[in-house]
Amino acid sequence: MKVAKRFCGAMVLLAFSALTWGGEIKHEAEPGIESEAFGSTPDGTPVELYTLRNNRGTEARIMTYGGIVVSLKVPDRDGEMADIVLGYDSLRDYVANNPYFGSIVGRYGNRIAHGRFTIDGQTYRLATNNDENHLHGGVKGFDKVVWTAKELERAPGQALQLSYLSPDGEEGYPGSLRAMVVYTLTDENELRIDYAATTDEPTVVNLTQHSYFNLAGAGHGDVLRHELMLDADRFTPVDEGLIPIGELRDVQGTPMDFNEPTPIGARIDQQDQQLRFGLGYGHNWVLNNSVGKLGLAARVFEPGSGRVMDVLTTEPGIQFYSGNFLDGSITGKHGKFIAIAMVFAWRRSTFRILPTRRSFRLRC
């Protein structure tokens, strides 16, 4: 008899605020959830786009294809809203060429070396869709499936539940896995993302959300001037295939040291083996805060808009990726070219957008 096993991810919090905004509500709106058709996939499956809006005018748009956060509008220092996540205007573009913009990633976020793993003495082989390694769930991961949506009555906030049943053997993974992701937008300007999954076989699962952020607003240059702080004294070095080598290395004296706020682009071109392997930043940092206790992992400040993003988590590490392949050749929303943007990877996330304070809380 097969027994279902429950998986619950970590606790992570993203907080957005603006340094000089006094908290005046400049965009009052009627809170709620609206849905609309957003086209169909090549096999004819219809896709819906949901807009979650609170009474401050903060807005998150999420579609059922890939569970993608299509846009996230938050205030700057003057209370003016801008979309701070990268992506496209149409479903067709997401289907044709999406480097995981805004997606739910699974079954397994990041890489599995040589596309194989062993459980209870049995080796499972996966697609090798990243040179010789497996990346982000394979050829057709959770970012490329259509999720089932359901509006939830959850106080406080507007909540959208997305669910997907991954059958046994999909992309080579053992066991049937039922995944559920809930996006909740509250009137306190929180965008909370909760992940859960059950499986009927021993398996591996590592869900995450893969939005690319530009706090200046999508299409407004790159993030190299964004000031980043990472509360980490060590990081996880990788080999040429970006697979961890089994070492925890001190950041002191290296371009990986972000203990003090530093522009992302200040040292990204230094002659450093790890930067060469990653073509920039694309590593895991080992956090100083206690495991299991919610603590500050990262803070990003964009001087032009005054927007601040804080990342808090209960987990021992955080993956920071500087979107190094974004060279301006991709045309995104409103016909604007997409430049380098930042990604933070977790398994369970809550975003909190605070107009009057710098800190941000994420709860699981």
Descriptive overview:
The longest helix is centred in the first third of the chain and has 6 residues, at 91-96. Mean pLDDT is 86; it is low at 347-364. Strand 23 and strand 24 form a beta hairpin. Helices cover 3% and strands 41% of the residues. The radius of gyration is 20 Å and the shape is globular. The protein has helices spanning 91-96, 273-278, and strands at residues 5-8, 12-18, 32-40, 46-53, 59-63, 69-75, 81-83, 103-105, 111-112, 116-119, 122-125, 134-135, 148-153, 158-166, 177-185, 190-199, 208-210, 227-230, 232-236, 249-250, 262-263, 282-287, 295-301, 307-313, 317-321, 327-331, 337-339, 343-345, 349-353. The chain has 364 residues and is mostly beta strands. It is built from 2 helices and 29 strands. Strands 1, 2, 13, 14, 15, 16, 18, 21, 23, 24 and 29 form an 11-stranded mixed sheet that branches. A 5-stranded antiparallel sheet has the order 3-4-5-6-7, with no helix packed on it. Strands 20-19-22-25-28 form a 5-stranded antiparallel sheet, with no helix packed on it.
